[in-house]
Amino acid sequence: MPSQSASVDPSNVQGLVFEPYRYRLSRYLLFALPSDEGARAFVRELLPRITHGAVDFVSVPPFLCNIAFSVGGLRQLDLSEEVIEALDPMFQEGPNPDPVGDVKGSRSDPVNWWEKQFGTEQIHCFVQLHSKDATVLDGATGEVLDLAAHHGVTELLPRREPDHQGSYRLNGQSLIGGQPQALGQTSIRGRVHFGYIDGFSRPNVSWSDEPSAGQLHYRHLLLGYSTPEVFSAPRTGRASDLFRDSSYMLLRWLYQDVAAFNRFLEEAAPKIAPRLSPDEAKELLAAKLMGRWRNGTPLALSSDRPVENFSNDFAYQTQDSQEWKCPFSAHIRVTNPRDQPLNSILAPEGVPGVIRRGIPYGPEMAPGQITDDGIDRGIFGLFLCANIRRQFYTLTHWVAENSFSPIFKGEKPPEDAPFGNRNNSATSHNFLIPQADGNVALELPDLVHTKGTAFFLLPSMSALKALTL
Ligand code: HEM
Known about the structure:
By secondary structure, the protein is an alpha+beta fold. Helix content is 22%, strand content 17%. The strands form five sheets. Strands 1, 2, 3, 4 and 5 form a five-stranded antiparallel beta sheet that branches.
């Protein structure tokens, strides 16, 4: 959270911008708003429940609540077209499957999103509830749904079939086995399906006006602070005043095929490490895919084994320019290439910073299981930024196609090793791992697909109030 000397008032910003919540359970509710006073009345009544950044976590609120709107939602709230036109054109347009790598005809094709229960443009409002207690979460859900029913707001249920708990909603749950999610801890880490602990690299946000090297300046996160160097829309005028301290929040519902991941490890690991035991070889391949061992140790710092204590301070070009330790297409080397040279056309402004939030969903699969159980599991990814094209789309494009740096050679660019879409005909689906006795190229299976994407504006508290007048 910003310090007292910071330039941003935390009580005007929705809380999840500052840090991930340490609650084990999340429920994401999607709504279509009516085109009458009911839309504003719904939001007005939710206002006192919305968690802002100055909330007193010592008194442990039983649940946390945040609210965001799509461009269609802002229209239902009667926001003028003049103001809407001043917002980020990418937000106005809504998710574009090309830069997010959701290839037409593949399982990630937008025609399949939301399990075909509704179209993305029907989503107006996104309410997130977080709690550590299932009964409290159900109670909070009941409150929100009662308000919705009272004001003619329609809940959109994104599942054709119920999930493993019989629910048609998006229910997230931290996976056990990461580090504890207790309140008051300074670092919050949980595991994702595929077994990696997440949460080591978080942008260090500078909340003061003094620019500082290595930090993500709050102007790249909050709207209304554009400068000639920082282009976030709206840049000036009424829209800029209205939405100061708001962010864009982009939701990706991503399925993870854990059985396929385990099969890949089992089948391909002996090819990269024939002299290691099968289990050690699988762990090494898992680390090569992510760029971190499953406990988080960066390969760039320890390439032959995970260690207990490690820092997040390392570089690639100076420490591993030949990718002996960490392959170029490993996930964290693609999404944060650090000091690597970048292609000046595709990455004119360097490595984009975004804030990552979200939570895994679905039950954990038994370690090493190679047959699918048909249960839906994966991650609800939330990305916060102030400029969708320069930040979010740049990153998703890098994941889809590794052509952002001159280090990538060959006829077709490769893609992010674990999370690329294998139906992309413009990319190579081989994962190159340099070894002392020659390169190994592994053919990558499809490990994830997109089940839904929606773009929201996460209004500041003052913007929320103004929207309900
Ligand atoms: C199923 C999908 C995904 C999973 C399970 C996943 C998981 C992970 C994990 C385990 C880490 C390493 C933890 C850490 O460094 O703190 C990570 C890092 C990261 N991921 Fe993903 N990720 C997914 C998709 C994406 C996508 C699509 C993007 C791009 C928009 C993305 C952006 C990032 C970024 C920016 C980092 C931090 C890299 C760094 O600073 O070192 N991830 N992800």
